[in-house]
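Homework help board

Subject: predicted structure for assignment chain

Our instructor gave us this sequence and asked us to write out the predicted structure in C-alpha cell form, then describe one feature. I got the C-alpha cells but I'm not sure how to describe them. Can anyone check?
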Amino acid sequence: MPFDTALTRALGIRIPVVQGGMQWVGYAELAAAVSNAGGLGILTALTQPTPEDLRKEIARTRKMTNKPFGVNITLLPALTPPDYPAYAQVIIDEGIKVVETAGNSPGPIIKMLKAAGIIILHKCTTIRHALSAQSMGVDFLSIDGFECAGHVGETDLTNVILLRRASQELKVPFIASGGFADGQGLAGALAMGASGINMGTRFMCTVEAPIHINVKKAIVAADETQTELLLRKWRNTSRLYRNKVAVEAKKIENDPAVKEFKDIAPFVSGARGRQVFINGDVDYGVWTAGPVMGVIKDIPTCEVLLKRIETEAEETIRKVSSFVKPASKL
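My C-alpha cell output:
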C-alpha cells in the first residue's frame, strides 16, 4: 500500500525513503534502481569531476528510469573548492526537480536553486542549523543523527532526541537520517514526526551499489560497534568503518603531540578511500559506514529491499496500533 506523507506527495514517490548522496557511490546505477523501486534515488554531484560530467550522468540516469530522482551537492571546506554554481547551473538546465544540500554556507546555492523552482532537502546535524536552513526557504530538512555515517557534526545527539526536537521547533517537514535500514526504522521515524527516512549504508549494501562486493560483504559481517570517529581534533568529525587504516589514524589523532591535520592527512585520503570501492581491499583506505551495519544481514536488490521496508513498516504500524484498545474492552 503506498504511503501518503509530505515527502511522498512533494516528490511523487511511493515509499518515503531517500537514498542519500554518497561520494563515489551515488552514480546512475544506484540512483535509478532506488527510484525504480519506489524511493528517491540521488546522484552525488561531486562524484563527477566536472559539471559537464554531471550533465552526462543525469542523462545516463534518465536512460535507466523515468521516475523522479535528485542530485546531492555537499559544500565542504577545500583549498580549491569545486565550482558549485556551475554544478548547480547544470542541475537547473537539466530540469532536476529535487536537490539534497549539505555542508557549510549553503545559502547562495540554495537561493540559486530555489529561484529555479527546485525542491530543496537540506541535511543538518543540529536543530540550530535546521532553523537557519528553514529561514533560507528550504522545503524539507534531513535531520542527521549521531548514528549516521560520514560527517556526524560535533554535538553527538542521536535521532531519538533530534527528531522530537525537530517536531517541536520546525515549521517545514523533515525526514530522519542516520541509523535506518528497515521498515521498523521507517515506522519509528514516522511515529516521531518525520515524513520519511534517508538511508546511506543500507543502500551501499545492495546489488546495484557500484562498489566492490568485498565492501558489501564487510558491511554484512560487521556489527554495530565497528565504526571509528576521526578528525574530532579539527572539528570535522567523521564516522568511518573501523579498519586498519582508521585504527592507525585514530592513534595518531590521539597523540597529544599531533597538532596539524597534515600529520593524519595521508591516512584519511579520499583517493585511497575511493580505491577501496574499486579494488575491494577494505583496509586500503578509510570509507564511511554507520553502526546500522549491525542491522544489515544481506545484499538485496533495491527493489527487494524497498518492498521489504514497505511491508515491514505497514506491519509495524498495524502492530503498534493494536496496542491501543477502547476502554470498554479493558
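Reply (TA_rk): Your C-alpha cells look well-formed. For the description, you could write something like this. The CA atoms of residues 227 and 242 lie 5 Å apart. That's the kind of observation they're looking for.
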